[in-house]
Amino acid sequence: MKVLIIEDEKALSESIFTYLNSEQYVCEIASDFRMAMDKISQYDYACIILDINLPGGSGLDILKELKLNHKADGVLFISARNSLDDRLRGLNSGADDYLTKPFHLSELAARVSAIIRRKSFDGNNLMKFEEIQLDLTEKTVMVNNRHIELTRKEYDLLLYFISNKNKVINKGAIAEHLWGDNMDMADSYDFIYTHIKNLRKKLIQAGARDYVKSVYGMGYKFTVR
Amino acid sequence: MKLFTRYLRINLFATLVIFLLASIAFYFLLWYVTIGQVDEDLKIEQREIVSYVNKYHRPPEPINVKDQNMSFETSHETILTRKFSTIQSPSKTEKEDFREIRFTLPINNQWFLFRVSKSLERTQIMNRSIIIISIITIVAILAVSLLINRWQLGRLWKPFYSTLENVEKFRIGTKRTPKFDTSSIEEFNLLNTTLNHFIQDAEKEYSLLKEFTENASHELQTPLAIVRSTLDVVIQDEKLSESQSNALQTAYLAIQKMSKLNQSLLLLNKIDNRQFSDITSIDFKGLVEQKMNDWQELWQGRNLQITASLESTSVNLNEQLAEILLNNLFSNAARHSAEGGSIYIKLEKEVFEISNSASNGPLDPEKLFKRFSKGGQATDQHGLGLSIVKQITEVSGKRVAYRYAEGKHYFSILF
């Protein structure tokens, strides 16, 4: 699946590239308006990560061009402006999601994955990781075809992990994903620990292997290895 | 004291003194002139008596009428000059002032003392009338001038008060510069133009400052995004040691704090810019319940006792701001109560109140809502939470109040 990163900050686009580029996605970078226009006219992408402010033009114009040519590419807006106006403008002109800088790459990856899933939705919105299967429409989880009962937070956590499989996710990113900006970080780390512990227990009890690895009090990794 | 009250007071005092002095002088002058007139009449009487005596060599028959008496008696002494004096009524029956002339005349080698007196009643009545009329005139003049001044001055000062009212309504940063009426008085126009310049300058400075904060915050977002995403990439390295990981976690926390601070600054700016103008009637009880639900986990984790009594209330507020408001108050209450403490939430028709058991004494209400003021221990906080609360209540026409009682901090929002 191809992902296009349209972002003029080279350091940022390279980080995104390094993080996303894997066996799952093939990434490309466009660093200005013209380059971006060239690329979208030539290829189709599963998802486009689009910065609103670009040298040479606005990200919104790129979005218009896409809609004009009836392209089905999913679009994730990223912007430094956390203003509702920008968000509404972006979503009204057909963007699939919106993310404000500074974001965690794990959050970006989760959003990209969600957009692609939605776009390629073919009747059964299922997501698989080894013996674990998530039904994204019903928000239910099966392990070895047996249904397991998860809380809302545990479900969100599992989905977040699988969207970022084989990646170390910082616990700050997990806290932000689960509770938004409201919570004081120092407090939320204990809660993350509790939720992960419970999720792990439930998965193992249902017969799944233990995929969650703790990384030096810095974060967690969901991996087979 | 109002300017024209003071002016009137001085004016009134001066006028009264002048009028009083003039009245006293007038009274004495009048008295002197009328007494002179009576004395003139008495002299005529004397001349008549003298010519009668010269002609008939005997004193005339005393004729006493109501306001004139004449009497004579033999005398051993002579009065060389006639004498005038004011006496009580000679008849003693009625209390009345008389003016009397005494003189001596020789008749047939015998000295006679003559007394002729004239009543002063009419003169006194006239004098009294004149004084009364004067006083009435003075009072009338004063009253009328007072009324005219009041009316006229009130009218003259009207532009001044309208300017004042305009300035009073003016709030910096609201983009509603006051509109001053032009007046026919030069001074007031000068005042208005000066104020206009002043307000425009202040407004300009204020918006420059705001723009600066906004731009600075926005410009910071991209470098922050770069640092954070770089960290996200670095931690993927499997060869990281524990100490390297710990160092990276420290960097994460600092970036976290910085981006939160930046977001809060941007939020304050947006509230200032009134970008949350969409006001709807919110089911506040529902919102409070929803937020309590969100926070339940954190509260339970800290063993906080939550007590709530909520009345159904709808409040006109921007929905986003209402959420931010509750989040900040809840977060504040949770942060400042010791583990195992308690939080009380109360919602009534006019007021929302949240209180928490305090670990220390009362907070300084002066500093509480200021930006970057930190309440004692919580150093991981940037100190913008309560100033955001204040800002939200201000732009929404509500009021926030703090009080400390019986070991509890109370924060109330008055709708």
The biggest sheet of chain B, with number of strands, parallel, antiparallel or mixed sense and barrel status, is: 5 strands, mixed
Oligomer: heterodimer
CATH homologous superfamily caption of the largest domain in chain B: Histidine kinase-like ATPase, C-terminal domain
Distance between the termini of chain B: 36 Å
Output the strand order for the largest sheet of chain A. 2-1-3-6-7
Spatial strand sequence of the major β-sheet of chain B? 6-8-9-11-10
CATH architecture of the largest domain in chain B, please?
A: 2-Layer Sandwich
- How many β strands of chain B by DSSP? 11
Number of helices of chain B: 8
Large-scale geometry of chain A: globular
Key features?
heterodimer; A: 225 residues; alpha/beta; Rossmann fold; Arc Repressor Mutant, subunit A; four-stranded antiparallel beta sheet; 8 helices; 43% helix; 24% strand; B: 415 residues; alpha+beta; Helix Hairpins; Heat Shock Protein 90; 3 domains; five-stranded mixed beta sheet; 11 strands
Q: What features would you describe in this structure?
A:
The complex is a heterodimer of chains A (225) and B (415). By secondary structure, chain A is an alpha/beta fold. Helices cover 43% and strands 24% of the residues of chain A. Chain A folds into 2 domains: 2-119, Response regulator (Rossmann fold, 3-Layer(aba) Sandwich), CATH 3.40.50; 126-222, Winged helix-like DNA-binding domain superfamily/Winged helix DNA-binding domain (Arc Repressor Mutant, subunit A). Chain A has helices at 10-20, 33-42, 59-68, 84-92, 105-119, 152-163, 171-179, 185-205; strands spanning 2-6, 26-30, 47-51, 53-54, 57-58, 74-79, 97-100, 126-129, 132-135, 140-143, 146-148, 168-170, 212-215, 219-222. In chain A, the strands form 4 sheets. A 5-stranded parallel sheet of chain A has the order 2-1-3-6-7, with helices on both faces. Chain A has a 4-stranded antiparallel sheet with strand order 8-9-10-11, covered by helices on one side. Chain A starts with a strand and ends with a strand. Chain B is an alpha+beta fold and 415 residues long. Chain B is built from 8 helices and 11 strands. In chain B, the strands form 3 sheets. Chain B has a 5-stranded mixed sheet. In chain B, strands 1-4-3-2 form a 4-stranded antiparallel sheet. In chain B, a hairpin with a 2-residue loop joins strand 3 and strand 4. In chain B, helix 1 (3-56) packs antiparallel against helix 2 (121-169) and helix 3 (186-234) runs antiparallel to helix 4 (242-272). The mean pLDDT of chain B is 84. The A-B interface holds A 9, 11-12, 15-16, 18-19, 80-85, 100-106, 167-168, 170, 172-173, 179, 181-188, 190-191, 215-219 and B 218-219, 221-222, 224-233, 235-236, 240, 242, 245-246, 248-249, 252-253, 255-256, 259-260, 263, 266, 270, 275, 294-295, 297-298, 301-302, 320, 327, 331, 335, 380-381.
